[in-house]
Recover the amino acids of this structure.
């Protein structure tokens, strides 16, 4: 359905642009030759064939290329047993690692850390220590 919608829109756009240019060209030509402009010629013999040709090309290319969606990653959304692991979002709080401020001074860290925790605290945030030193 998306292919046909895009083909229709592109064909309509091509028709509008071709019609505008062909009307301008017909008016300029009629001014140079001092004759009345034949605008039906612009519709029938220039704009319409251009739009049909462009629409056919877009349709053929769209159908030939198909969907360009990337395949899903192998094993995405599955646990080690190969079963889907959607889990209960209420039981899985996001874990955010916050570096302990000035870890050399424990008293200062205990005063300053709650400010950082409050900035990122969610409904069920929990403190987890990373002892990398």
């Amino acid at each position: 359905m998306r292919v046909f919608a895009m083909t229709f829109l592109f064909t309509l756009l091509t028709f509008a642009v071709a019609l505008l240019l062909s009307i301008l060209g017909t008016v300029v030509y009629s001014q140079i030759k001092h004759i009345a402009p034949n605008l039906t010629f612009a519709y029938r013999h220039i704009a319409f064939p251009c739009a049909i040709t462009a629409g056919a090309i877009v349709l053929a290319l769209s159908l030939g290329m198909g969907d360009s969606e990337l395949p899903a990653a192998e094993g995405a959304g599955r646990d080690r047993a190969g079963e889907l692991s959607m889990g209960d979002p209420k039981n899985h709080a996001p874990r955010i690692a916050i570096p302990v401020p000035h870890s050399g001074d424990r008293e200062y860290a205990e005063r300053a850390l709650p400010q950082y925790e409050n900035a990122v605290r969610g409904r069920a945030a929990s403190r987890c220590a990373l002892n990398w030193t």
User: Anything to note?
Assistant: DSSP finds three helices and no strands in the chain. Residues 2-65 form one domain. The chain has two domains: 2-65, 94-133. Residues 18 and 47 are 5 Å apart (CA to CA).
